[in-house]
Amino acid sequence: xxxxxxxxxxxxxxxxxxxxxxxxxxxxxxxxxxxxxxxxxxxxxxxxxxxxxxxxxxxxxxxxxxxxxxxxxxxxxxxxxxxxxxxxxxxxxxxxxxxxxxxxxxxxxxxxxxxxxxxxxxxxxxxxxxxxxxxxxxxxxxxxxxx
Length: 147
What we know:
Blueprint: H1 13-28, E1 32-35, E2 47-52, E3 68-70, H2 71-87, E4 97-102, E5 105-110, E6 117-118, H3 119-136
Antiparallel strand pairs: 1-2, 2-3, 4-5, 5-6
Helix pairs in contact: 1-2, 1-3, 2-3
């Protein structure tokens, strides 16, 4: 289904998880914001797009910022996840983000103490959470090939 001006796509649970986990991670670390194009006095924007405010941590992440999401899926699935994770202090301004090296390999540690994890572990957690909420919200069952 193609995009038309003013309409966001309805994505399946797997599409939401695969396409929005990384943009959600960037929002939570302060590197991106949600944009609501076409919002006006008569009504809200029919879709949401995540836009970078700072550079990407990995060049492979850049393609994930071309995704637009239907406002209903943003409102019912993505926004509550972002709010829940911030409220639990799992990540964000209170947890912080640190980078370093491990035997010459760059590493990124998200959060501190009990909530500390690697970036990839946190993104995997986001994927699972998005997929679960999307399925619970009636937006499709995961593909047979999905973990």
